[in-house]
Amino acid sequence: MSSERGTVNPKQPDADSFSVGAHTSSSCSTSVEGATEQELLIFTLEGQRYGLALQVVERIVRAAEITPLPKAPAVVLGVLEVEGTILPVLSMRRRFRLAEREVRITDQFLIARTERRAVVLVMDEAHGVRKISRDKITRAAGVVPGFEHIEGVAALADGLALIHDLEKFLSLDEAVALDEAMKKEEGEGHGN
Predict the structure, then answer these.
(1) Is 87 left (phi over 0), alpha (psi -120 to 50) or beta?
(2) Measuring CA to CA, how many Å separate 118 from each of 48, 64, 82?
(3) What's the DSSP call for residue 54?
(4) What are the residue ranges in the chain where pLDDT is below 70?
(5) Phi, psi (5° rounding) for residue 145?
(6) CB 140 within 8 A of CB 151
(7) pLDDT at position 20
(8) How far apart are CA 155 and CA 6, in angstroms?
(9) How many Å separate Cα 142 from the centre of its chain?
Protein backbone atom coordinates (compact mmCIF):
# COMPACT_ATOMS: atom_id res chain seq x y z
CA MET A 1 0.00 0.00 0.00
CA SER A 2 1.25 3.47 -0.77
CA SER A 3 1.70 6.10 1.91
CA GLU A 4 -0.70 8.47 0.14
CA ARG A 5 -4.19 8.74 1.55
CA GLY A 6 -6.92 7.13 -0.55
CA THR A 7 -9.06 9.73 -2.30
CA VAL A 8 -12.27 9.77 -4.25
CA ASN A 9 -13.52 12.50 -6.55
CA PRO A 10 -17.17 11.58 -7.03
CA LYS A 11 -17.99 14.69 -9.08
CA GLN A 12 -17.04 13.01 -12.34
CA PRO A 13 -20.13 12.63 -14.58
CA ASP A 14 -19.56 8.94 -15.35
CA ALA A 15 -20.90 5.67 -14.00
CA ASP A 16 -18.29 5.58 -11.20
CA SER A 17 -20.49 7.59 -8.87
CA PHE A 18 -24.12 8.41 -8.43
CA SER A 19 -26.07 10.29 -5.81
CA VAL A 20 -29.01 8.88 -3.91
CA GLY A 21 -30.81 9.64 -0.70
CA ALA A 22 -29.90 13.21 0.14
CA HIS A 23 -31.16 14.43 -3.21
CA THR A 24 -34.24 12.23 -3.27
CA SER A 25 -37.54 13.47 -1.96
CA SER A 26 -39.02 10.89 0.32
CA SER A 27 -41.91 10.90 2.68
CA CYS A 28 -41.14 7.32 3.72
CA SER A 29 -38.58 6.76 6.42
CA THR A 30 -37.89 4.59 9.42
CA SER A 31 -38.47 7.54 11.73
CA VAL A 32 -41.93 8.41 10.40
CA GLU A 33 -44.59 6.53 12.32
CA GLY A 34 -47.62 5.56 10.30
CA ALA A 35 -45.86 5.62 6.93
CA THR A 36 -47.06 2.74 4.78
CA GLU A 37 -43.83 2.29 2.82
CA GLN A 38 -40.12 2.56 3.43
CA GLU A 39 -37.53 3.32 0.76
CA LEU A 40 -34.43 1.15 1.01
CA LEU A 41 -31.19 1.04 -0.94
CA ILE A 42 -30.67 -2.67 -1.61
CA PHE A 43 -27.10 -3.97 -1.89
CA THR A 44 -25.22 -7.25 -1.64
CA LEU A 45 -22.33 -8.51 0.42
CA GLU A 46 -21.17 -12.10 -0.15
CA GLY A 47 -24.42 -12.87 -1.94
CA GLN A 48 -26.61 -11.74 0.98
CA ARG A 49 -28.91 -8.80 0.35
CA TYR A 50 -29.05 -5.89 2.76
CA GLY A 51 -31.15 -2.75 2.86
CA LEU A 52 -30.29 0.67 4.22
CA ALA A 53 -32.87 3.43 4.76
CA LEU A 54 -32.58 5.73 1.77
CA GLN A 55 -32.63 8.92 3.84
CA VAL A 56 -29.18 8.14 5.33
CA VAL A 57 -27.55 7.34 1.97
CA GLU A 58 -25.61 10.18 0.33
CA ARG A 59 -24.05 8.47 -2.69
CA ILE A 60 -22.26 5.44 -4.04
CA VAL A 61 -18.76 5.65 -5.50
CA ARG A 62 -16.34 3.16 -6.97
CA ALA A 63 -13.80 1.52 -4.70
CA ALA A 64 -10.53 3.32 -4.00
CA GLU A 65 -7.47 2.70 -1.87
CA ILE A 66 -8.10 2.88 1.87
CA THR A 67 -5.53 4.35 4.24
CA PRO A 68 -5.13 2.37 7.49
CA LEU A 69 -6.21 4.19 10.67
CA PRO A 70 -4.01 3.28 13.67
CA LYS A 71 -5.79 2.56 16.96
CA ALA A 72 -9.22 2.43 15.33
CA PRO A 73 -11.69 -0.31 16.31
CA ALA A 74 -11.30 -3.61 14.43
CA VAL A 75 -14.47 -2.95 12.44
CA VAL A 76 -12.82 0.13 10.84
CA LEU A 77 -10.80 -0.65 7.71
CA GLY A 78 -9.24 2.82 7.58
CA VAL A 79 -10.02 6.22 6.14
CA LEU A 80 -10.77 7.71 2.77
CA GLU A 81 -10.65 11.31 1.63
CA VAL A 82 -13.85 12.33 -0.17
CA GLU A 83 -13.94 15.86 -1.55
CA GLY A 84 -11.50 17.09 1.10
CA THR A 85 -13.22 15.34 4.03
CA ILE A 86 -11.66 12.38 5.84
CA LEU A 87 -14.25 9.63 6.35
CA PRO A 88 -13.93 6.34 8.23
CA VAL A 89 -14.40 3.17 6.16
CA LEU A 90 -16.39 0.54 8.07
CA SER A 91 -16.23 -3.18 7.35
CA MET A 92 -19.60 -4.86 7.19
CA ARG A 93 -17.74 -8.13 6.60
CA ARG A 94 -16.15 -7.86 10.03
CA ARG A 95 -19.38 -6.73 11.71
CA PHE A 96 -21.36 -9.60 10.19
CA ARG A 97 -18.50 -12.10 10.74
CA LEU A 98 -18.10 -12.84 7.04
CA ALA A 99 -14.86 -14.04 5.45
CA GLU A 100 -12.28 -11.25 5.12
CA ARG A 101 -10.98 -10.28 1.70
CA GLU A 102 -9.18 -7.36 0.12
CA VAL A 103 -11.28 -4.59 -1.38
CA ARG A 104 -11.68 -5.27 -5.09
CA ILE A 105 -11.82 -2.75 -7.89
CA THR A 106 -15.35 -4.00 -8.65
CA ASP A 107 -16.55 -3.21 -5.10
CA GLN A 108 -18.52 -0.08 -4.39
CA PHE A 109 -18.34 2.36 -1.49
CA LEU A 110 -21.60 3.55 0.01
CA ILE A 111 -21.29 6.96 1.66
CA ALA A 112 -23.93 7.42 4.34
CA ARG A 113 -24.60 9.73 7.27
CA THR A 114 -25.24 8.80 10.87
CA GLU A 115 -26.18 11.30 13.57
CA ARG A 116 -22.49 11.52 14.55
CA ARG A 117 -20.65 11.45 11.22
CA ALA A 118 -20.53 10.49 7.57
CA VAL A 119 -19.15 6.99 7.00
CA VAL A 120 -18.14 4.76 4.10
CA LEU A 121 -19.36 1.16 3.85
CA VAL A 122 -17.78 -1.35 1.47
CA MET A 123 -20.29 -3.39 -0.50
CA ASP A 124 -20.10 -5.82 -3.38
CA GLU A 125 -22.81 -4.19 -5.48
CA ALA A 126 -25.75 -1.78 -5.22
CA HIS A 127 -29.03 -3.06 -6.66
CA GLY A 128 -31.09 0.11 -6.53
CA VAL A 129 -33.84 1.63 -4.44
CA ARG A 130 -36.97 -0.29 -3.52
CA LYS A 131 -40.16 0.88 -1.85
CA ILE A 132 -41.14 -1.75 0.67
CA SER A 133 -44.57 -1.95 2.25
CA ARG A 134 -44.21 -1.81 6.03
CA ASP A 135 -46.31 -4.95 6.37
CA LYS A 136 -43.53 -6.79 4.48
CA ILE A 137 -40.95 -5.83 7.13
CA THR A 138 -40.44 -7.97 10.23
CA ARG A 139 -38.64 -6.32 13.15
CA ALA A 140 -35.27 -7.90 13.94
CA ALA A 141 -36.09 -8.78 17.56
CA GLY A 142 -38.51 -11.42 16.30
CA VAL A 143 -36.08 -12.91 13.78
CA VAL A 144 -32.46 -12.23 14.75
CA PRO A 145 -32.39 -11.20 18.43
CA GLY A 146 -29.05 -9.92 19.68
CA PHE A 147 -28.07 -8.28 16.38
CA GLU A 148 -28.57 -4.63 17.33
CA HIS A 149 -27.29 -3.40 13.96
CA ILE A 150 -30.08 -5.26 12.11
CA GLU A 151 -33.35 -3.32 12.20
CA GLY A 152 -35.48 -5.92 10.47
CA VAL A 153 -35.98 -8.27 7.57
CA ALA A 154 -37.77 -7.16 4.39
CA ALA A 155 -39.69 -9.66 2.29
CA LEU A 156 -39.05 -8.66 -1.33
CA ALA A 157 -40.74 -10.23 -4.34
CA ASP A 158 -37.49 -12.07 -5.13
CA GLY A 159 -36.24 -12.96 -1.63
CA LEU A 160 -35.27 -11.40 1.69
CA ALA A 161 -33.06 -8.46 2.64
CA LEU A 162 -31.68 -7.68 6.09
CA ILE A 163 -32.35 -4.03 6.94
CA HIS A 164 -29.26 -2.49 8.44
CA ASP A 165 -29.48 0.10 11.26
CA LEU A 166 -26.46 2.32 10.63
CA GLU A 167 -26.92 4.21 13.91
CA LYS A 168 -26.19 0.98 15.80
CA PHE A 169 -23.30 -0.23 13.60
CA LEU A 170 -20.67 0.84 16.15
CA SER A 171 -20.89 0.09 19.85
CA LEU A 172 -20.41 3.04 22.21
CA ASP A 173 -16.83 1.94 22.93
CA GLU A 174 -16.10 1.59 19.20
CA ALA A 175 -17.57 5.03 18.50
CA VAL A 176 -15.37 6.62 21.20
CA ALA A 177 -12.26 4.80 19.93
CA LEU A 178 -13.07 5.89 16.36
CA ASP A 179 -13.52 9.51 17.49
CA GLU A 180 -10.08 9.45 19.13
CA ALA A 181 -8.40 7.80 16.11
CA MET A 182 -10.07 10.27 13.71
CA LYS A 183 -8.96 13.28 15.81
CA LYS A 184 -5.40 12.01 15.71
CA GLU A 185 -5.60 11.37 11.93
CA GLU A 186 -7.06 14.82 11.26
CA GLY A 187 -4.40 16.42 13.45
CA GLU A 188 -1.62 14.64 11.56
CA GLY A 189 -3.23 15.47 8.22
CA HIS A 190 -3.25 19.20 9.00
CA GLY A 191 0.33 19.08 10.19
CA ASN A 192 1.69 17.93 6.80
Answers:
(1) beta
(2) 24, 17, 10
(3) G
(4) 1-35, 142-147, 189-192
(5) -60, 145
(6) yes
(7) 53
(8) 37
(9) 24
